[in-house]
Design brief:
The protein has 336 residues and is of the alpha+beta class. It contains seven helices and 16 strands. The strands form three sheets. Strands 6, 7, 8, 9, 10, 13, 14, 15 and 16 form a nine-stranded mixed beta sheet that branches. Strands 1-2-5-3-4 form a five-stranded antiparallel beta sheet. It has a two-stranded antiparallel ribbon with strand order 11-12.
């Protein structure tokens, strides 16, 4: 079997090598287009007779997953003797020339700088505090490979490319708005990560929920893990990771509650899961039993206050972010 290769290489991942700013082609790619990839060619040997086409492609492009190669077949990036093929199960014959354009995976183009505006609350040479808007994904993942906070940070300052996750040390859900702290140096990243793990960073959220709690203030101390029935959700489960949320009732009206929540831990979907477990699902949070109401079509959760010690000077720092317009209107409807 003979092969020919071009000089295409996967782009570097964040934290391993500098990431260059995007050029025009990369900008188009971030909008959903596919970049030009490597053209790889090979001839089927006698030993490979009757192999499925996708199996043959794995043998010449083993750095890609079989499912990705099948996707390239479906998207007309594979030719057999010059003819486009779209059937992964097609059997190959000895002597046939197979060509595949190895378009990069979505993951491989995710870690690129994108000029996205950031609402900067505070910045120095060590850290950055941002007011994240609802709708912005923090870190690239399936379905959201561009337009994320990580992409914006790579464009915001050069040092982000040399940091794991571009300096992101904690996250907010896509539809949660509010304050998030980001490290700008390796030393700050380590210090902030340690402080969060030691529960030395104060994080307070404002939430609107269906229902009214029986107590004006209470703590929910319940372990959180993957929902065994609906894997896209988290749940309070035995054997889950320890999680505690302190909850204070600010006001209630017409079956809705305005709540102040303080995190002791930072589990995935923690406030959403804990409140739903007490019959208080967030307004707009359809994943955990809430429904749109009060003008809210996304989960009514906002990271309002952040308290921490500066990772270098150890100075006590306190930040606040006002409610965005949609939640501010809903908050007034409940609180008067």
């Amino acid at each position: 079997m003979s092969q020919t290769r071009s000089n295409y290489r996967e782009p570097p991942r964040v934290g391993t090598a500098p990431v260059a700013p995007p050029d025009a082609d990369e900008a188009n790619e971030a909008e959903g287009g596919e970049s030009e990839g490597e053209l790889r060619c090979a001839v089927v040997s006698d030993a490979q007779a009757s192999w499925r086409l996708d199996r043959f492609l794995v043998s010449i492009a083993s750095e890609f997953s079989r499912s990705h190669l099948q996707g390239l077949i479906e998207r007309r990036h594979v030719r057999v003797d010059g003819l486009v093929q779209q059937q992964a199960a097609r059997r190959v014959r000895p002597g046939q020339r197979i060509e595949i354009e190895l378009v990069p995976t979505a993951q491989s183009v995710a870690y690129r700088a994108e000029p996205i505006a950031l609402a900067v609350v505070y910045e120095d040479e060590h850290l950055l505090v941002l007011d994240k808007p609802a709708g912005m994904v923090v870190h690239p993942a399936a379905g959201n490979w561009s337009g994320t906070l990580l992409n914006a940070l790579l464009a915001h300052h050069a040092g982000a490319a040399m940091l794991p996750r571009a300096g992101i040390v904690h996250r907010l859900d896509k539809d949660t708005s509010g304050l998030i702290v980001v490290a700008k140096t390796p030393e700050a990243a380590m210090s902030l990560a340690r402080a969060i793990a030691a529960r030395e960073v104060g994080r307070e959220y404002l939430a609107l929920a269906h229902g009214v709690p029986a107590q004006a203030s209470f703590a929910i101390d319940a372990p959180i893990g993957r929902d065994p029935v609906r894997r896209v959700r988290m749940a309070v489960v035995a054997g889950g990771r320890p999680a505690r949320t302190d909850v204070e009732l600010v006001a209630a009206s017409d079956g809705f509650s305005a709540l102040r929540c303080r995190l002791h831990t930072g589990r995935t979907h923690q406030i959403r899961v804990h409140l739903a477990s007490r019959g208080l699902p967030l307004v707009g949070d359809t994943l955990y039993g809430g429904v749109p109401a009060l003008g809210m079509v996304r989960q009514a959760l906002h990271a309002a206050r952040l308290l921490l010690s500066h990772p270098v000077s150890n100075e006590a720092m306190h930040f606040e972010a006002p409610l965005p317009a949609d939640m501010a209107a809903a908050w007034r409807a409940v609180c008067g």
